[in-house]
Structure prediction request, 247 residues.
Amino acid sequence: MTTTSTTSKIALVTGANKGIGYEIAAGLGAQGYRVGVGARDETRREAAVAALNEAGVDAFGVALDVTDDTSVGEAADFIAARYGRLDVLVNNAGITGGHPQQPSSVDPAVIRAVVETNVIGVVRVTNAMLPLLRDAPSPRIVNVSSSVGSLTRQSGPGGETTTGPVAVAYAPSKTFLNAVTLQYVQELVGTNILVNCACPGFVATDLNGFRGVRTPQEGAATAIRLATLPDGGPTGGFFEDAGVIPW
Ligand code: NAP
Prediction:
């Protein structure tokens, strides 16, 4: 396949077939980005691409399971062959591992599975896409984290009630993701790649049985802002709508 010449910026959103990821794709599309809908299930992926196209978004499907080396490698090859670069990567795909998740009774396999998706999946996708991001003029990486991963908030006054239920796989996976993000920031210092974490807030999606109080569109806003930062914008930060979240 020959590379398609395009002046549109190219974005890839992982886990974009539903929930917050879908709305991040929609929001970037509304700003003129050509958006890759990264999703592991073909039927769900194509349905999301069709809905986005219907809404006027220049969306294309990217087969992508973030836990699978071959799938991620093929996704990078696909974008390389089509576009030759990637302007924005939003690592949004995530799982909770289910509840309850009490430290005293958790199955270690649950922790392993959550970390595999929420942390190692991000590393796997980011590393596959980095050569393409380096070929873009103003690359941005956004990792969709959660304030439940903030150690400062968990250990502060009322932390046990303000940072969500006890969840020994999910919450530490986001702490781990935050730490990993800062490692990328350190390695990429001196480049123009801006790398940040976004927290969407408590959003009504499949992830929490639609108990969240915010809409997926509201939850997408911070990630979209970080994905579209101007040159010289912040890097190495953790943001929600209200501003900076302490690590
Ligand atoms: P969601 O509706 O359950 O969507 C999760 C997405 O991730 C789905 O598209 C899912 O695809 C995808 N995914 C899961 N495992 C994957 C894998 N191995 N490969 C590729 N895609 C995979 O949940 P959401 O609430 O929108 O969550 C999006 C992100 O926001 C997550 O990182 C989550 O931790 C974070 N977050 C959510 C909230 C909230 O209140 N909802 C709060 C803080 C942070 P399938 O359809 O194939 O399963």
